[in-house]
Amino acid sequence: MPRPPLPPFTPETAAQKVRLAEDAWNSRDPAHVALAYTPDSRWRNRSQFLQGREAIEAFLTLKWRRELDYRLVKELWATQGDRIAVRFAYEWHDDSGQWFRSYGNENWAFDAEGLMHTRLACINDLPIRESERLYHWPAGRRPDDHPGLSALGL
After folding, report:
1. Cα(61)–Cα(1) distance, rounded to whole angstroms?
2. Contacts for 62-66 with beta carbons within 8 Å, 24 or more apart?
3. At CA 118, angle to CA 78 and CA 77, rounded to 5?
4. Residues in CB range of 2: below 8 A, 6 or more apart
5. How far apart are CA 1 and CA 133, in angstroms?
6. Cα(106)–Cα(87) distance, integer angstroms
7. Which end of the chain has fewer CB atoms within 10 angstroms, the N or the C?
8. From residue 153, how far is each of 79, 80, 115, 128, 133 by CA, in Å?
9. Which pLDDT score is estimated for 1?
10. pLDDT at 133 over 90
11. Half-sphere exposure of residue 134, counting CA atoms within 13 Å on the CB side?
12. Which residues are paired to 43 by β-bridges?
């Protein structure tokens, strides 16, 4: 089943793809998120290497059990052909109440149907105080009027 927008991407369609990905991840629904990837998709996430939707879904299930009250903002960095580069920051806390802002970059490559076949992510975690949080919307999709990364100075 095609997942528009489809490559080759323009800056506008790449930005749409980025927002759709952000929305899906903010749902924190591993099964839903995994459907955006090819059945044999390859991931590098920090020091983990995954392959396939089942592995992606299992990874995301564990991630969101550990990263509580997760809120994510993604921003298009660059695009060409079937590739998109993204930068992002997300906030979460662990089960002890320690808050973090995790910063990173992702390189994505898509098949002709708009499914991601490769995701390479580099991520760093910064402990923050709860008072330093910037993302306060209710769980789920980031509101359209909430500032993006550039507007927040991130």
Report:
1. 24
2. 64/28, 64/30, 66/94, 66/95
3. 15
4. 113, 114
5. 38
6. 6
7. N
8. 22, 25, 31, 16, 13
9. 87
10. yes
11. 17
12. 50, 119
Of 10, 106, 123, the closest CA to residue 63 belongs to 123
pLDDT per position as a tens digit, 89-99: 999 999 999 99
pTM given for the model: 0.97
Residue 115's φ and ψ, nearest 5 degrees, are -90, 140
Q: Are the C-beta atoms of 14 and 84 separated by less than 8 Å? A: yes
State the Cα–Cα distance between residues 76 and 32, nearest whole angstrom.
Answer: 22
Strands 99-110 and 48-51 come out as unpaired
> End-to-end CA distance of the chain, in Å?
35
Which residue's structure tokens are 């990173």? 104
Q: What is the mean pLDDT of the chain?
A: 98
Question: Pairing mode, if any, of strands 37-45 and 48-51?
Answer: antiparallel
| Tokens describing residue 48 | 């983990």
Tokens standing for residue 94: 């662990």
Q: Where are the beta strands (DSSP E) in 1-154?
A: 37-45, 48-51, 68-80, 83-93, 99-110, 116-128
